[in-house]
Amino acid sequence: MSERLWLNRRAFLRGAGITALAGAANSGPSLVTPVRADSLDQAGSTNYDFDTVYDRVGSSSVKWDAAIDRYGRENIDVGMGIADMDFRAAPCITRGLAERCKHENWGYMSTPRSFYQQIADWNKNRYGLEVDPESITLSDGVHPALIAALNALAPAGSKVLLGTAVYSGFYGDLRWSRTIAENSPMIVENGHYRMDFDDLESRMSHDTDAMILCNPQNPTGNCWSEEDLLRLGRMCLEHRVVVLSDEIHCDFVMKGQKYTPFASLPDKEVVDNSVTFKAASKTFSLAAMKIAWFFSTNPEYMELIRAQHRANTNTLGVVANQAALTDEGADWLDQVNVYIDGNQDFAEQYIRENLPGVEYTKAEGTYLAWIDISGVAERLDAKRLAAEATANSETGRPVTAEAIVGNWFVDNAKVQLNAGSSYGPGGENHMRMNVATSRKILKLALDNMAAALNDL
Ligand SMILES: Cc1ncc(COP(=O)(O)O)c(C=O)c1O
Questions:
Q1: What is the pTM of this model?
Q2: Cβ of 287 less than 6 Å from ligand 1
């Protein structure tokens, strides 16, 4: 590399606030302060402003604009669906991107080695997880990475185990890999979810080659304990089921809860039987920047997956991620976590006091609220309406009771939520609500819903 180009690259990194970190790749000191959600001080730690509403309408956002396109501007006050955040991005990200844009050339990029080190440092400093930077493979999303892993490790026609209700996108990944969902519904008691280990084991047959684990779990918000993960991991090992652990939501942990990386389990054989998938796309709301990564302590798995994996990274995505995975980004994230924890508390209390027919037990992690709407479905006679709509459906596609409840909330409260039925068995009688927004917007949505329910 010529000296001039090298100097320019240093200037980009400096702008992104990551020169020190690039250096740290060689020297090894940690630049991200470890933090536990339960040690955060609610009062004194919000110098970023998450309260002021950041208007995303007109920015081609799925959360707002796609809902408006579908239902009409007059019918949507709040989009509470897809999992990204409404907040203005962390300033270190905006600065890093602006600095890079000063260099007006967008040719093929050579991904800096320092990025891999940053990913390893983030895992080490926040979660005590040792990740060999050499073992990390970048992807243009968790989906392409998961699809490659399924294609590599689960033959077409084989079964993939899922603990349901679970992130709807996994079903799409199974279609791309021509594998079949083996759904194991979780057990729910008083709003708390747990894995049904007997059921899971009974489904680990000779043609079940992989399990997609979601930790923390979308949509229920469970942060799986070390005990749960070890039990599951040992079962999977015994039955030759590879664990594909999607940990994209891991940076959102509510007060008093703990995220345990699957790869941190104290059983080497169990860990060697897994691949972990991560990204900063939820953490810093960089979803459309299309960067994710995966790693494993099992070089054989990595080689097989890499052979199926053709991903392109992109310059702005890498710059944004490098700017985010820094001390400054970590501070922003800690504050977002405090704010979201407050939103989750607010939603739980508000729903209990004001939304007849709706129940919610606060999530342990994620910024998602998995709300039980059985009472509303019953009052709407949603099952009967769904059966009628299915019978009259021109496309022949079944209409679910949850879709009926979802449409009712749009028509009567101008709030868009995600129907639980798309999250597999166990999604009945639920809707998913994204609370990563200004508390004013959250309150507006809940006020609208309360008014609609009180008129019902
Ligand atoms: C559990 C989980 N995995 C993967 C994704 C999508 O990841 P990506 O956008 O990186 O493909 C999501 C998005 O909501 C998710 O919740």
A1: 0.90
A2: yes
